[in-house]
Amino acid sequence: MSESDDLRHGRGGGSGDGELDGEDPVAEWEFGLPSCDDLAPLSQALIPPDLASAFSIALRPSRTAGDVNRASRSTLTGLRRCGSTASSQGFSTNDNFKSFVDDRQSMEVEVEVEEGEKEEEEEEEEEEEEEGDGADKSDSRKSRRIETAEEVDSTPRMDDSQEDPSEKTSKRSRLVWTPQLHKRFVDVVAHLGIKNAVPKTIMQLMNVEGLTRENVASHLQKYRLYLRRMQGMSSEGLSSSDQLFTSTPVVHSLNDVAGSTGHGDGQMPMPTLMPYGAQPPMMPMPVYAMGHGYGHMRMQIGDLSGFESNQYVTQHRDWSSNKYGSVASYQQTASNEKRF
DNA sequence: CCTGCAATAT
DNA sequence: AATATTGCAG
């Protein structure tokens, strides 16, 4: 109990905290999220033409405007949530948020159907780095379900009969934290800094339709536990005094210290301190690390500063159907939080 | 009211 | 097993 205090930095009280009210965080939020970079060209075929032809796969015209548009027709639904919550907290920064919000349906949550089994989830997210020079990268990746028909429709599916996208009263089934969703979560958290990384704010910044504060809170709780473990281990071997100094380069408390730790790359934010080979036998944190079938743990960078494009070296195309355009670019000023 | 966290439920 | 809920303390 007492130990948990380090995480709570008294922000509760009342909403007022002054921190949120300020413009600082808000300003940073603007570029906070991944967007253009991730923008995986939906209109782009997932498989190279040559490869496709090699397998006699007919490349469909690709999902262009049509499909994309289809996937994004549920517009302002996201606004309702953001709007209401925002106002309740005095978030009048709509202008800034607008960037995200405006993009509305940036990402739909996926819901698990309890009785019905789970069909395939989203597609893959292969490591499409642009190593260019490397060239030794054969495309012999795993050619998974290549033609996953439409995927992202929109609006979370409820278990079966409960459909009331309007508002509450609808029992959202369990939310499935897909790697994409988690990534978004991590990105937001990482760039919010421990100070503002609270459920409500995270939820708002993630701007995922259907995401509730509870969803985030629950996930956040788990995420924190995970981080704690990591930190605990890494600092364990070192002199305990380091902890006292809180100057440990690691993600000391969450990821506010060196903004660099944030975002892994879809995986967990690995503290820069931990050697890649030093991974514990098995870290429980499935969803992100490998979750369902995404067992590839590619590099876990760990440093990268920021939100720039760096983090996506390994994988792009994330929240599939969303066209971020306005948000544009979190410049790199993203020195993000910390300080203060 | 909101957060964080453990325990507990599904 | 992964999430959701609940209860409690701040």
TrEMBL record:
Residues 1-29, 60-175 are annotated as: Disordered. Transmembrane segments: none annotated. InterPro entries: Homeodomain-like_sf, LUX/BOA-like, Myb_dom, Myb_dom_plants, SANT/Myb. Residues 84-97 have a biased composition (Polar residues). Residues 18-27, 109-133 have a biased composition (Acidic residues). Keywords: Nucleus, Transcription, Transcription regulation. It is found in: Nucleus. It comes from the Eukaryota. One of its GO terms (cellular component) is nucleus. Residues 169-228 form the HTH myb-type domain. Its main location: nucleus. Residues 134-170 have a biased composition (Basic and acidic residues). PANTHER family: HOMEODOMAIN-LIKE SUPERFAMILY PROTEIN-RELATED, TRANSCRIPTION FACTOR BOA-RELATED. This is HTH myb-type domain-containing protein. It comes from Eucalyptus globulus (Tasmanian blue gum).
